[in-house]
Amino acid sequence: MQWFGRLRTVAITAILVMTAGAPGVAVARPAHLPPPARAFASSFEAGQPAPDWTSTPERASGVDGGYATGGLPGEVTDRVTGVRASAENTAGGEVKENLADGEPSTKWLTFAATGWAEFDLDAPAAVTTYALTSANDAAERDPADWTLSGSADGSTWTVLDSRSGDDFTERFQTKTYPLAAPAEYRHFRLDVTKNHGADILQLADLRLATGGSDGPVPPDMLTVVDRGPSGSPTAKARAGFTGVRALRYAGRHTASGRAYSYNKVFDVNVRVGARTRLAYRIFPQLADGERDYAATNVSVDLAFTDGTYLSGLAAVDRYGFPLSPRGQGAARNSAGNVYVQGLKVDGRTWTSTSLPHSLLAEGGTLEFAMGPRPSAWGSGKNAAPVSITRDDRVPTPPMRSPAPAPWPTTPPGRPRPCPAPSHCRAGVPRRPCSTR
Asked: Which domain holds residue 102?
């Protein structure tokens, strides 16, 4: 399984519940269940098990589903289903999808002074306002001249707004631009024809809005299948861990004290034994650059037929941290999570403090074991990083040259002759001739 999330404002305790015969389920069940399965898995891809519930809490308090990027009345950026661009910096993770993720900390970058990006909505929207957000650095890369156009078919474009000589005075600054009249289109295109002098163009976000009411905030924390997270410098944007889908959990902490939401996701019938393994991957997102790591307060729970829950049975993960939303969130700041005790790379014990280029290029899984005290990990003779060649081979150290002969000397005031080649030290330029 895989999940990614966005929790805004303050820390929220959330749990994604995989139910297994829990009371009070939302669907009718047969009188006699089939024999329990031995395993269950889903990556939320087409043809795989889909959630039995979406945004359905079993119990909750102080939480709603108002996670949206917000800021513009009637914003429809969350309805973007596709993005195209003239170019992007794929290797650096500065891709076109970052323009629609609502996160100023990510950006779209192209190695040209001009560029364009097109956005598809799930349905036509009467846009009245749009906004652009400057990126994190290099103001000379900001757009200066551009046009915003709309299209019904994605081929024929109508100019909706033009700007010339515009300027962002701060990093991560969002500027709003009204249209002369509402423009109802399904496709929108931003065409930047000039920046502020650099040979690179960048932009953090483009947001579209209708100017109307956003409608009521969803009353419950959201758990919906989505396209996957963005904003990672090392991962493909809008994709899951093993495909192109993931489950998004998102919401706001609206209470003054404790808040939580236990959302049901799957209704499964799996026998759990002493050797049963529960595994899942989570990508916590930092909404608007927040650093309280609210989205780490999450775990996947199991509800058993006897009415108990895994989180209530003092279960711990492989590193000894409580398998509960609060326990998983607290683990990041725990005194037992300070020192590296060991590392496995793709299941193999790893003692070096560096990784080969091939692993960075092809990808892999790192599993750190942490502890409360300093350890000997990384202090071995061969643990220090070494220079490598393109083929991941440690280069042969150069042979140590014999000590050079003394530099020739001359009486004061007379030119010193240039030393012969035999006097050149290995790796050190020959001294210039001079007078003494």
From this structure: 77-209
